[in-house]
Amino acid sequence: MMWQHRVQAAFGSDIGSFTRSMPPLCVPKAVHSNSSITAERRNGHHHEQNGSHKPISTGTGTQQYTRTPVSTIIEPFRVKVVEPLHRTTYQERQHLLEPADFNLFKLRAEDVLIDFLTDSGTGAMSTGQWSGIMRGDESYAGAQSWFRFQAAVRDLTGFEHVLPTHQGRGAERILFSGLDVAGKRIIANTHFDTTRANGEFLGGSCIDIPKRTLATEDLPFKGNMDLERLRQLLAEGEPVACVIMTITNNSGGGQPVSLQNIQEVSEICKRNGVPFILDACRFAENAYFIKTREQGHSHRSVKSIAQEMFALADGATFSAKKDGLANIGGFLLVRDPDLVESCRQNLILTEGYITYGGLAGRDLDAIAVGLEEVVDESYLEYRIASTRFLGQGLADAGIPVLWPPGGHAIYINASAFLPHIPAEAFPGHAVACAFYLEGGVRSCEIGSLMFGGKDPLAVDGGERKANLELCRLAIPRRVYTQSHIEYVLEIAQIVAAQKDTLRGFKIVQQPRFLRHFSASLAPTHSSANGAH
User: Fold this and answer.
1) Rounded to whole angstroms, how far apart are CA atoms 422 and 506?
2) d(CA 286, CA 278)
């Protein structure tokens, strides 16, 4: 079959495709991890997964033979609850998109067949997490759920001071308020949208300094920070509120950051007396890439690598909706005692008491379990491989993607795919709309629509442009199966066949901050071939 050849091309002979575990018209709502098989595989004892010489008994004695390793990577769970999907026709989707102002965020979820808009809070929880939900303690203060949550976070991160928040952006706002970022620089490998918006809303100046690489370069750690540029900025003498390392680098194509780069940035910050903060939303995926790509770490557990990353930081913001494997929640980690006290007061004012932070006790328990499950290496192996499978399939369909694939999403290089659409007409959004119209697949522009706006440095008041014009297909965790991915790849072939006819978009109305969430758009009048 076509998908078998594609996987072999993507992963080589040692990694295969995934078995289809369910029909394409349902998605799992809860999953059950096979912990016994997971443990055996992790310890190298699972007899179906190793390539050692194994004796087998025959009628006349014992025969030795070489076992062939099983190369198929399967979902390390089985489906327990399913949710029906609703199909729409092309004509129906046309009529749905216009009233939504051509903004995919405004669509009703029931009118989306495959939802790759985001991986944030959209995953399926395990039976262990649902068990945690049922034992949630909803006491206002000092609930048992809080202490289980706190213990899980401390065990993973080593931070004593843990402040729960309703999600990651709550942690960002509280941190930036405590750091008093007004009039100061906030430096990052790349800020994500809410991080930048929170910083700028509070008067900070956000500066991105990713290590520059070509979109097609097959390098292991393209999320790294530019160390020389960091030294230059710190030497200029302007006040710097903090330096943020986003792991993985979401706006930079979901690319991982090497442990060496994290260590070097941490040391530079210490020498300059600047707080070093992790945006740790996808810490487990980043740690897995360090284990599999960075020399000297292949023998280590993902958890130990994650613990070292956190140990290098002065603080961290975290959305539990990503690598917390939960549907809501987050936390803020801080070492400085004075900053902790300031952040606690802000937390009580805006999120809730310090032992729940705007979350129900049941959510605290779900996150506590998720933080243990997310560092399971059989899960991460499946997660990274399934993402790469999607990326290889898009490339085979003639759609340029950022390479190598990251952990949580595939990023289509929209400016390369649609060179006839300029940045100010949002080629990434054109790709996203085409995927929805052709197959009901919802994705997200990450480019000048998300990160643009009026450029304060432009004499003519023109638009600020993003470094890259991308369309992101973010894969929810433990939700879709192999056949869902194959369906998306079939839609990709349809989109690729008509790329020259796709049109750009213009903004009709927009808010001041985070405009991509609620802006109203309209198609431009002409495509590359002059059609109207």
Assistant:
1) 11
2) 12
CA nearest 479: which of 132, 113, 63, 64? Answer: 113
Residues 378, 383: Cα–Cα separation, whole Å:
9
CA distance between the termini of the chain: 40
Side chain identity at residue 172, one-letter code: E
Calpha distance 426→408 (Å, rounded): 23
Burial of 37 (0-12, 13-18, 19+ CB in 10 A): middle
Q: Which domains, ranges and CATH numbers included, belong to the chain?
A: 79-115+376-523 (3.90.1150.10), 127-373 (3.40.640.10)
- Please, are residues 522 and 505 in contact by the beta-carbon 8 Å criterion? yes
Residues of the chain where predicted confidence (pLDDT) is lower than 50: 1-5, 7-24, 35-58, 457, 528-532
Amino acid (1-letter code) at residue 93 = R
pLDDT reported for residue 21:
36
C-alpha dihedral sign at 496, 415, 516, 330: positive
CA distance 436 to 442: 5
Residue 449's contacts (CB-CB under 8 Å, 6 or more residues apart) are 426, 428, 429, 505, 507, 515, 516, 519
The β-bridge relationship of strands 444-446 and 470-474 is antiparallel
Contact 209, 196 (CB under 8 A): no
Residue 444's pLDDT is what?
Answer: 95
Q: Say what the pLDDT of residue 526 is.
A: 60
* Identity of the residue numbered 18: F
Cα–Cα distances (Å) from 337 to 162, 285, 360, in that order, read 12, 30, 27
The token pair at 224 is: 């790294």
CA distance 88 to 504: 24
Q: How far from 237 is each of 231, 274, 323, 358, CA to CA, in Å?
A: 11, 12, 36, 38
Q: Distance between CA 31 and CA 192 in Å, rounded?
A: 30
At residue 3, the pLDDT reads 44
Report pLDDT for 464: 76
How many whole angstroms separate alpha carbon 126 and alpha carbon 31? 5
Coil, helix or strand for 465? coil
pLDDT digits (tens, 9 = 90+) for 60-86: 555 677 888 888 888 999 999 999 999
Three-state DSSP string of 368-435:
HHHHHHCCCHHHHHHHHHHHHHHHHHHHHCCCCECCCCCCCEEEEEHHHHCCCCCHHHCHHHHHHHHH
